[in-house]
Fold each of these.
Amino acid sequence: MKTTLYIKKSIRERVKIIAIKKKRTVSSVVAELLSKLIEKESPKKQFTYTSVKYQESDPEDEFEYLHVTFSQIQYEVFLDARKLFKSSVSRLLFMAMEALNQSSVSLEDSYRFNTYTFNKKATNKTIKLIQTWGIP
């Protein structure tokens, strides 16, 4: 699936540098960054009823388009992550790059997931949502 992200020029350039260093495509680096962010942050995520958040504008940094290609499974996972995190996919990439800068995410270990589940349990007047990313 081909898609386009609208991101800060500085982020786009950093993703390209990582791709060159790792001898990988930009799309595969973006997919791995997003996957790592989801893997690390989704267990902490609480469901909230807020609107989708986008990247903050920065007068010192231009925005550019980044064209990427994801597999069908990756595309669906990232769209679901968008809903879970209430953030645009471009903002998720920004968050992943920030986590990479803080060394809380590493591209060295190549664990990738393509399975996830959402389960709903209702008891009395309470609804419990359970999310599982990766192999349960």
Note: The first strand starts at residue 2 and ends at 8.
Amino acid sequence: MAVRLTESEKKKIEAAAAKCGLVPGVKRYTMFGLPVTVLSGIIIVTLKKMLYMNHNKSNGGNMKRVCCIILITAFCFIAISGCVSKNAVILSQNSFFDRMIIHDGKVYMLCSLEFVNKSDDEQIIDVTAESMEDVKNGLLKDSSLKLYIFSATVEVNEENIEQLLEPAEHISINGHETVRYYACFVGEHGGGMQKQDRELPDKITITDRSK
């Protein structure tokens, strides 16, 4: 005989599963790879079956409840261990939009970008961005934005911005290193003269080039 979990226990299990993506149809990258995903799936299926079985107040039922608690504890450990981002490098929340320059058919979005390498190894990344909101308001002709890094720490203006930009290709970041760049997202001018907001582009994509 198995026991029926209480409603609060059920909600805790399902919340933990949903938080870490351990639900049918959702892919998740973990530090332990496929074994963690498979084992987690087995645990979820087992727990769900137990939810629909009759409660038994006998000693056997109490033993099942103890086993269930152990199973829940094991699941929580695996779930926490599995919540790891796909990318080793992330864009820090300390990143921000600075100002904008419109010149010669281009829109230059000047930003301060901070990248954090969470892994032990050197990572090589490429960064691209999209800003659909600025297409809607007419600032950009196309949502695609290319990232450039400034080659010198001087005052940037319309006259010198093109000479100061260097393509931000294959950025290298050492293990557990945090790096900051004064950079610029560049796109085609759509005719509008105002940015939607003072935020970074809607979508910033970090692509791992290390492998």
Note: Helices lie at 7-19, 34-51, 59-82, 132-136, 161-164.
Amino acid sequence: MHKLVVNYHPSAAVVQSAETDEFLFSRYDLTYPVLPYRLSANVIGGNPTPKDTTPWQTWQREVCEEFHNEAPHGETLRDTTTPFAPLEEIHRIRDAILAGARPYADFHVSNGGISLAEYLGGVGKGLKEAEFVASLPEKKRMELKNTGLVTRAQAELISIFHSVIPQEEIERVKHYLAKGMRLVTEGGSRVLTRNQLVNGIEGEVERNKSYLTAHTTPFVMSNFLGLSHPIMHPERSSAVRLVTPVRASYADYESDPMFDYKPIRK
């Protein structure tokens, strides 16, 4: 029996306006070490810790840690210059996201990694190879030298929730982003429309040298929007939505023979 390999198992949510075709995402900033995904939008969530026992618990914890103005215990803020929106406003958005959430589906994503040739010939077009390699953190330069890949190959299971929030909370997000203020402790936030997700934003990929959406997000959003062709993504990545629902606990995945389940917990 062929098993689905699971190296990572994050939990995240599609956060949607109740009234418009707008969606709220996390956004990687310019410190993110994976260049093809710098400034890219990502579904809101993160990876489990050793203490987490369910995908739901992981996602709730991630949302509560992110929508705050202080780093989680034992961590530090990388961005110490961008001002936060008022904490009560951040918590209004956070509470709306949590209150409107329900399980959606599990997705298994096979990521073969992005080769140097694919990146420089695609979203990174215009970059000089030597300058690009020199700009990488030392760890990423070594990975590139050893594998020929700009991003690591991995197999991932992602548990997705769906949260519908009032349009006033979307407007609240846009208001503070327009004022140059932040709502989350790591990276940033972004609101995108269905049309922007499907058709892209003119000139943005070329300017940023990165994909509009990161990691599993193009596959999750393509499925959610019912698209016949997936949103722009790396060539050697693919995904399938599982017919089984989001499980009640991580133990349920560990005991299921359909998985080779050995996710890294941080």
Note: The chain has a mean pLDDT of 94.
Amino acid sequence: MAIMVAGPRTAAFLPSKMNKNGTASPGSSFAPVQGWLADTSGSFPGSLVSGNEALVVQNAGGAVTISVSATWSTFSTATVNINITVNGSVVQTNSQTGASGTLTATWNGAVATGDFIRIEMKYSGSFAVSVTAGFVQVT
């Protein structure tokens, strides 16, 4: 009679994505962008959103690519800044100046199951900025 000993099972990595839902208005200081829905389509079965602001990493434990996008507009010229954060630590930044645009950023690095991925934004300008579309994804 053979005895089989197996180590712990590791779950396969699950790509995750959240899509912007509704309009957000960043302020003059960095803060998490609110208003996201998990994209649980066939391509992103591991999607889970926490607190209406963070994508929760599912079954990871190694190198991933985090891609973010935020479509914004204002009534005049503004400079808009975006941060990708992992558990509150900034890992990538980008900025854009104009009256509207789609601000993107990408980061490659290691994450763990349960990590929180957020985008933070701020602007400087005479009029408020509205964020109306976007996504955060881990692949």
Note: Strands lie at 16-20, 31-32, 36-38, 49-50, 54-56, 61-86, 89-112, 116-125, 130-138.
